[in-house]
Amino acid sequence: MKQVNVGLLGCGTVGSGVARILIHNRELIQSRLGAVLNLKYVADSDPRAGRSIAFGKGVFIPDAFQVVDDPDIDIVVEMIGGQGIARKLILRAIENGKQVVTANKALLAHHGNALFEAAMKKGVDLAYEASVGGCMPIIKTLRESLVGNRIHSMIGILNGTCNYILSKITREGTDFKSALADAQARGYAEADPTLDIEGMDTAHKLAIIVSLAYGIKINYDDIYIEGISRITPMDIAFAREFGYTIKLLAIGKKKGDRIEARVHPTMIPSGNLLSNVNGSLNAVTVSGDAVGNILLYGHGAGMMPTGSAVVGDIVDIARNLIHGSIGRIPLLCCQPDQIRQIPIMPIDELETNYYFRFAAMDSPGVLSKIAGILGGQGISIQSVHQKGRKSNGSVPIVMLTHQARESGVRQAMAEIQRLDVVTDEPMLIRIEETNSEA
Amino acid sequence: MKQVNVGLLGCGTVGSGVARILIHNRELIQSRLGAVLNLKYVADSDPRAGRSIAFGKGVFIPDAFQVVDDPDIDIVVEMIGGQGIARKLILRAIENGKQVVTANKALLAHHGNALFEAAMKKGVDLAYEASVGGCMPIIKTLRESLVGNRIHSMIGILNGTCNYILSKITREGTDFKSALADAQARGYAEADPTLDIEGMDTAHKLAIIVSLAYGIKINYDDIYIEGISRITPMDIAFAREFGYTIKLLAIGKKKGDRIEARVHPTMIPSGNLLSNVNGSLNAVTVSGDAVGNILLYGHGAGMMPTGSAVVGDIVDIARNLIHGSIGRIPLLCCQPDQIRQIPIMPIDELETNYYFRFAAMDSPGVLSKIAGILGGQGISIQSVHQKGRKSNGSVPIVMLTHQARESGVRQAMAEIQRLDVVTDEPMLIRIEETNSEA
């Protein structure tokens, strides 16, 4: 029976998940693949990293470079993370003609174009299903299942930390800080949670799927990013009154030849399936011209779910090795010579519905001043809600708008903030009137 | 640029969807595939079938055999349906060394083993993503993405007709007959709806995915099947009171070396995502040892969604043709020599929770008689609800049980039905206490 040699770099959370699956389900995988997937090396500089797994003699080694330089290794699985040593190791593996699997979204978002180019030049596969949405097969679905579709939009909950925090505030009315502390205590948020809660991790993932869906180079830098740290229980309560739920969404859309790619807290109708995705779970809806709407849902992170996606990639590549079909699917969905340079639309040009919350003095004329400024920017108000929930001497004025343009909204917000009667920075949350069916 | 020639058999609903996608998105598909997908023939004996599509000269022909016998045709796409001519054409195509794509679940459920064997012998691919769940990539997910997983269970809403009818009864309280008539008027149900509403169509699909998940031959005959025609608005109202929703579910499970495969109306907790899948939509959750739970959701039928899945298969096979990797993935997930003969567990051996509804005279002692019979079969009652909703001189007595064995339940039902005080056939609905997270 044929054998494919796998070298694993990094035996942290996801790396050890991959090792466990390859070891525990070895015979099952063999019965499906028709070949032996041999985990030849697991490299980690921390000798404690692999202690809980019963590796054979000589499998666990400290030096990752020994793995990428070993002529017997067919597939290198990078599970180190970060953009430093991981990048060097992947490039060296490619140079050595190895196939590569990674789950490293930050690396792909920032250096993916160079890595994919190197892989294409060398004629090796570089697989990355686990980089977006953990175990959900969103990469395979976009590159393969939906290959006949023009993708209209992708709307995803792609960060479990943020979804856990927002779900907790929604369910229990706690404030952001305690929800974050709870997420940290449960291991859903890291000690420094910035990448997650400020939306960068979500944007890394969005950069990848936007590239696949629309046949453009990975463009992380032009994605508009806004995190969840300013969301209050009050906003969530207002949202509920209006029939909305607040989620941190990754939104990718194509309208004509314009591509939207943005990450921000968003109000979506409570009947929408995405609004019922709670806790640390992830989900993404994809809308295409033939498929209509589909939704994928599952664990976006974690040792075993992410490991499952990585093993799927390893087997995919092993099949290509066995059948001589490396390069069978273009790395970024489109054939390399078909990848286009279409800029991402600046957020100023966005047109959508908005929720505004102003903290204002409870005095006559306030509403007229605010409405006047909004009117001056051509922003048409759908409804106004002024309720006696006084806090710090001011009352909240909440407005929902008809479709408005972001540039005008921003100018209006700046003007309104300068009003004497407005006591705090205005809150702005975009509304996504998603299709009712998904 | 390379060219792959496609021949389409049948230009009905799905067939014309496939043709539309291949024609309208021709350049897009080409930019992803790196080759031309040439729709050389569309065969339909009804000359009106393709009238709404602008086929090139000589593409639309009456004779399907001309397609499967044409030496230029690489991929035959069978969209005729049924088990007669479709089977003959597929076998002839295989004999002629063509690759085959089909969406024909009835054919695969009944004759799949022979068809797959013929394809393996000849060394051709036979793809069938569209046969289960329309556009949801459940086949690809099971065969590829979850290849590293032991599958614990699959629970799916796989028939849009039934889901539409049950959703309508749930929402509007209409009875089954009017809900069915409405589904027929809207084109969600056929003139003869038996295959759908009696659960056979769902079972066809379950037979396929159970085979993939558990590495066994397709075994439709041993699947327990119960349809939705006896479900009343009263049962749905009771279910809601207890926090459940009634769905027609396809359930595949593995416990040790026993495989469950059954189709029946089922109560699931209303918080479960599946319970929020309404109208003609489909969804399936898959639970695996690594992946945890994932859910796929989308249109389970319809011209364009099903067409999308068929085109995904066509492109997959075209890639195999271009890269010389036909047979890259075993047709039934496992390598042919690894496929096992494990029987499907008889329904009598099922152990689950049950909902019973009895129509009984409103007289003293009734409850004690019924409870006595249940107790005699070792069925432990969790709660009893006897409400004054008199209809036809009898009152409904509703019971929820703890886990009980189906064989005992059936004996008890037969005994209870023979009681003088029981005025109608008892209603039995199985309860699935699904994992709360999916």
- Termini of chain A, distance in Å? 45 Å
Mean pLDDT of chain A: 95
Query: Oligomer, anyone?
Result: homodimer
**The first-level CATH class name of the largest domain in chain A:** Alpha Beta
Q: How many domains make up the 3D coordinates of chain A?
A: 3
Dominant shape of chain A: elongated
Total helical segments of chain A: 14
Beta-strand fraction estimate of chain A: 15-25%
Q: Give a count of the beta strands of chain A, DSSP E runs of length 2 or more.
A: 17
Rg of chain A (C-alpha, Å): 24 Å
Ranges of chain A where pLDDT stays below 50 over 5 or more residues in a row are none
Which two chains form the greatest contact, residue counts included? A-B, 68 and 70 residues
Instruction: Return the CATH architecture of the largest domain in chain A.
Output: 3-Layer(aba) Sandwich
CATH superfamily of the largest domain in chain A: NAD(P)-binding Rossmann-like Domain
The share of residues in helices of chain A is 25-40%
Topology, please?
The structure is a homodimer of 438-residue chains.
Chain A: E1 3-9, H1 13-24, H2 26-33, E2 36-43, E3 60-61, H3 64-68, E4 75-78, H4 85-95, E5 99-102, H5 105-122, E6 126-127, H6 138-145, E7 151-157, H7 160-172, H8 176-185, H9 194-197, H10 200-214, E8 224-225, H11 233-241, E9 244-255, E10 258-269, E11 281-288, E12 292-299, H12 303-323, E13 351-361, H13 366-376, E14 381-386, E15 394-401, E16 404-405, H14 406-417, E17 427-431
Parallel strand pairs in A: 1-2, 1-4, 2-3, 4-5, 5-6, 8-10, 10-17
Antiparallel strand pairs in A: 7-9, 7-11, 9-10, 11-12, 13-15, 13-16, 13-17, 14-15
